[in-house]
Design brief:
about 190 residues; alpha/beta; 6-stranded parallel beta sheet; two-stranded antiparallel sheet; about 20% strand; globular
């Protein structure tokens, strides 16, 4: 796996885009044990604590993301009180997906139980130069992201760690600085 550099030049890689709202993006499908619920819990906690101000954050899910572990994701959104914060955008063409990735403040990788595989989105996320939050077990993906930098690797069951990672990225967004960046020389090898 890797990324196709030819898909990126027309889009460019922006420096820090100051979005109107802190934007988290997930791209792909929700299958097997991929579930956005840990991030929903973190967002709810940060809103309840007042760390994230009302109306200043959003979480976009792009792709086949309407069901997770046999449950409607929209029901999870309502259950966590995140209506208005979470948008299920459905499948988009590759250029639109990459535009969303490049304009995001935090990119989410869900890879619970994937100890030997690295999802292709990890390479595209790394190429984007944006901060990454990887909710994954120890294994190949965690190893890759630690070598390249630019990511927080958190076990999906570590609610406090996820809250801390999102709060840190949100704080960087508020200050207008990059929260994490991968080493571009290492990323270029993919």
């Amino acid at each position: 796996n890797g990324y196709d550099e030819a898909e990126f030049p027309p889009l460019g890689t922006p420096s820090i885009i100051r979005n109107r709202v802190f934007t988290i993006t997930y791209t792909g499908e929700l299958y097997q044990r991929r579930n956005p619920r840990p991030l929903f819990r973190a967002l709810r906690r940060l809103l309840d604590l007042g760390i994230i101000a009302p109306g200043t954050a959003r979480f976009d899910l792009i792709g086949q993301c309407d069901m997770a572990e046999g449950k409607p994701v929209q029901d999870m959104v309502v259950q966590h009180g995140l209506t208005g914060y979470v948008t299920l955008l459905g499948p988009l063409d590759k250029t639109s997906v990459l535009r969303h990735v490049l304009a995001s403040d935090l990119l989410l990788v869900l890879a619970e139980g994937w100890t030997m595989q690295i999802p292709i989105k990890a390479y595209e996320y790394l190429r984007s130069g944006r901060a990454i939050l990887a909710l994954t077990s120890e294994g190949a993906l965690a190893d890759l992201l630690r070598v390249t930098g630019g990511a927080r690797v958190i076990d999906p069951t570590d609610d406090a760690g996820i809250v801390d990672a999102v709060a840190s990225a949100y704080g960087a967004w508020k200050r207008g600085v990059a929260s994490l960046t991968a080493d571009p020389h290492v990323v270029a090898t993919f």
